[in-house]
Amino acid sequence: MTDIAQGTGNWLDAVKPYVEKAPLAALFLGISSGFPFAMIGANLASRLAQDGIDKKSVTAFSLVLLAYNLKWLWAWVIEGVKLPLLHRLGQRVSWMLLAGALVMAAVVNLALVDPAADLMGTVRAAILLGIAGATFDIIIDGYRIEILKPEQLGIGAGMSQYGWRIGAAAAGALGLVIAQHWDWTMAYIVCSFFALPAMLTALIVGEPERHKEIAARKSGGELVQAIIGPFVDFFKRQGALLVLLFILVHKIGDTLANLTFRLLFNDLGYSNDEIAIYDVGVGFWALLAGIFVGGVLYARLGLKRSVLISLILMAVSNFSFAALAAAGKSNIGMAGAIGFENFASGIGGVAVVAYFSALCDLRFTAAQYAMISAAASIVGRFLTGTTAGTMIERFGYVDFYLLTTALALPGIALFWLMMRAGLVEASVGSAASEKDDQPAA
Prior knowledge:
Blueprint: H1 11-15, H2 21-40, H3 42-50, H4 55-60, H5 66-69, H6 75-80, H7 91-111, H8 119-147, H9 153-181, H10 184-191, H11 196-205, H12 221-235, H13 240-249, H14 252-258, H15 261-268, H16 272-301, H17 303-327, H18 331-358, H19 365-395, H20 397-407, H21 409-421, H22 423-426
Helix pairs in contact: 2-3, 2-8, 2-9, 2-11, 3-15, 7-8, 7-10, 7-11, 8-19, 9-10, 9-16, 9-18, 13-19, 13-21, 14-19, 14-20, 16-17, 16-18, 17-18, 17-20, 17-21, 19-20
């Protein structure tokens, strides 16, 4: 492997890669990746709350996001199925175009449903968007990792996170503003165009040079390898089960907290415009700063120490929302909590995403990253959808956010143990190596 686990270079060298072709492409990929999440996450929560839907139902809608955690079930399709006609453009490019078109159609479909009049129709439309958005994520992540060189994984992760936040924040803010001055239907229709940056990037950059075919096209062998290959490759590595446990638990508290912020803001009495300014606006710039700092820390301190620092900061950020809930409505308090949370998430978005990207084998990039990223937040999303609303109503926001802080501690301890045991280096795949010319599976 490369010096992925070691800090290298000077401060200027840590900045220059941000303007290279592949990291810039990762920026635009991230924009399209982030916006569907906002459409069925924060914006849908605001839309439902403003339509008078009760808290239990609003938090239950977060179960729609479980599509992102189940995407590994159909990721093999993107690895092994060749699209008629479009495949001439390449396996990754063809799927990028199809998945983007499906997302745009799903967003428009959700726009045309009225939650107050047809809640079950809204559920179905949100599920369709969740599946389409998760499919879009599969191909976006695979494409991103394959266009990046090993030494660009940290910077590429940072640029992708920049893009993700730009897409999510722009769609979130634009949706809120259009809904405030027009309606939610128009807000969703306009935001559907955020799928275009990734589609255009794939057409301009073309098929990734590092993309590896998984098997010869004969007797269904390619599909078999697309289904079982990613799992076989991952679990044969040293300490695979411990690495998987870290992936599952490291983000429970952060995910559980993040999916309830809009409920807190609504109950504290913030208007749509105030949420757009502080949650979206301040949060946006704080995350951009965090991503930049994360990229520099990654280059200077290496992957292991930058991941550990980010895990600690994300745990502390959950505590800041307990303080905000205890203080009540405060513009300064909201700006501080949102700012710190996004700054910490920005650092984690570079270090943790770089590590997860490095875990992939270039023969199964899309499927393995789908499996890893799905596992990373499934527990927190399940708890949010099934118990978060009930816990908030029973214990209140302060104790709820203190609980999310405590839930972040096992992930910190586990990664520290992995560092001591040498499992961080042992667990990475060919995406972290210059020697990516592995034979077909």
